[in-house]
Amino acid sequence: MLADPTLTAFQQNQLVGLQGGVRLDLPEYPIFFNEPTDAVRTALNLPLEPTIPRIRELDFISPNETITTTVGVGGQIRFTMSGPGVYSLVLSKDGVNFDRTDEDNRTFIGFVEAAGEVMLDWDGTDNEGDALPPGRYTLRGQMQGGEMHLPQIDVENNLDGGPIIELTNPPGGECPDFIGGCFAAFYDDRGYETANGDIIGTAINGPLCAQPNNGLVPDPPASDPLLGYDSRTDDRAWGFTTGGNPPVVCDPRGGFGDKKGMDYWVFYPSEEIDAPLYIVEPTAIELRSFSAQRVNLVAQLRWETGVELDSAGFHLYRSATAARADAVRITDALIAAQGSAQVGASYRFVDTTVPLGEAAYYWLQEIALDGSSSEYGPFALGASALTQQQQIWLPIVRW
Fold first, then answer.
1. Regarding the domain delimited by 55-146+273-278, which CATH topology (the fold level of the hierarchy) does it fall under?
2. Which CATH architecture has domain 282-391?
3. For residue 283, what pLDDT is reported?
4. pLDDT tens column, 112-132
């Protein structure tokens, strides 16, 4: 938080007005100088035992009620919270980078006041507002239980890097898997965008002030976005030994915390939960289900599409392993497409050459009118229909 530079020095020091319309909220929790007794906690409606936060049943629902959507369309994200708290969802393309501030990811953060189901609308874009390209994505959700913010207001100098923040009663005695464990905290001293679109600082993730500060500055400028930092270290030390209080915010002679609100936040994380979703070009099919069942000496393959855009038809491939490179085509001729851009269709194929007593995996290949192809699979022979519906959305390969 940065003071409005058009105000007087006194008003800036008091953070009476903040850039971007940001405001300081009223304190929510008391500060104790001694360990509070159970009677005090009960009187203040503070729980005597910590509660483990949980997020469950995370999934994505496209407009056609599948986990596959088309470019620029999006859909809805559904999950269940075990109680009041902050949720944090990150949609990652590579399934490795879940940095909430990365412009190529999509981040959803919000607060719910009670346990229950949560539904979020998503427009198919990333954090920059650009449509995400086709591919397989991983949606990762986490509930941040007991989140608290501990801002330092107009603290010009902090050469020791405090405060030290300790979680003294972690659920089950288990400290979170953060840097510093029970001493972990988070901070971010970079520029950001407010909910109404105002840029605070020089740029998103850029320096807060245009001119470099003459004193000590936090290094790094932000804690690890997923793991935080150890509050016992001097990572967030700043300022001078004395002084550092010029008349205007962002004067390089000022301590780094001068006329700013330096926020720290802490929380106890739930276990992370992942859910896949897929984005395809609008010329691809939308596959609702696929099943492969052994019936006597043959295998019956059934699939259903929700939408078929410019589709010519289908081929099927089979392998004794789950490796696509081992698969061979089992359809002599193209199975003609029966759906359209408005409705899908149901299909059935009987594989009379499937070996007995051996594993079998199938791939469904869709051939578009322009000759390009998309593949779905593998699908294991003999798995239940419900299992198949959970497995079908694997990466789409086009060539």
1. Immunoglobulin-like (2.60.40)
2. Sandwich (2.60)
3. 61
4. 988 999 999 999 999 999 999
